[in-house]
């Protein structure tokens, strides 16, 4: 299954914590990871293999949204920072909208992401 990992800058430490906490689940289920650029670099640094797309503000969210539309993504873990402004807000909304259009599981905070991981276990 393909899981997309995305985190805004203010949430990247929580994303790394999540990757460490659920390492067994994420690596035992033959999960294929894709990520926006900077999130992907941090995911790699945490010891994962991951396909890195463009950084979010440069179109990474849009690339992941396109893959969702093509049926190539099964789950999205998107740690959004609701306390910050983002120049690519339209891309973010597009990604989340397409999750709903195509019934793709979407977690936008660690509590929900943890429950999705428990669903995979
Ligand atoms: O901006 C993002 C999500 O909207 C994340 O992009 P980066 O992973 O490149 O920081």
Automatic annotation (TrEMBL):
<dbReference type="InterPro" id="IPR004363">
    <property type="entry name" value="Methylgl_synth"/>
</dbReference>
<feature type="domain" description="MGS-like">
    <location>
        <begin position="1"/>
        <end position="121"/>
    </location>
</feature>
<feature type="binding site">
    <location>
        <position position="8"/>
    </location>
    <ligand>
        <name>substrate</name>
    </ligand>
</feature>
<feature type="binding site">
    <location>
        <position position="12"/>
    </location>
    <ligand>
        <name>substrate</name>
    </ligand>
</feature>
<dbReference type="GO" id="GO:0008929">
    <property type="term" value="F:methylglyoxal synthase activity"/>
</dbReference>
<feature type="binding site">
    <location>
        <position position="88"/>
    </location>
    <ligand>
        <name>substrate</name>
    </ligand>
</feature>
<feature type="binding site">
    <location>
        <begin position="36"/>
        <end position="39"/>
    </location>
    <ligand>
        <name>substrate</name>
    </ligand>
</feature>
<dbReference type="InterPro" id="IPR018148">
    <property type="entry name" value="Methylglyoxal_synth_AS"/>
</dbReference>
<feature type="active site" description="Proton donor/acceptor">
    <location>
        <position position="61"/>
    </location>
</feature>
<feature type="binding site">
    <location>
        <begin position="55"/>
        <end position="56"/>
    </location>
    <ligand>
        <name>substrate</name>
    </ligand>
</feature>
<comment type="similarity">
    <text>Belongs to the methylglyoxal synthase family.</text>
</comment>
<keyword id="KW-0456">Lyase</keyword>
<dbReference type="GO" id="GO:0019242">
    <property type="term" value="P:methylglyoxal biosynthetic process"/>
</dbReference>
<dbReference type="InterPro" id="IPR011607">
    <property type="entry name" value="MGS-like_dom"/>
</dbReference>
<comment type="function">
    <text>Catalyzes the formation of methylglyoxal from dihydroxyacetone phosphate.</text>
</comment>
<dbReference type="GO" id="GO:0005829">
    <property type="term" value="C:cytosol"/>
</dbReference>
<dbReference type="InterPro" id="IPR036914">
    <property type="entry name" value="MGS-like_dom_sf"/>
</dbReference>
<dbReference type="Pfam" id="PF02142">
    <property type="entry name" value="MGS"/>
</dbReference>
<protein>
    <recommendedName>
        <fullName>Methylglyoxal synthase</fullName>
        <ecNumber>4.2.3.3</ecNumber>
    </recommendedName>
</protein>
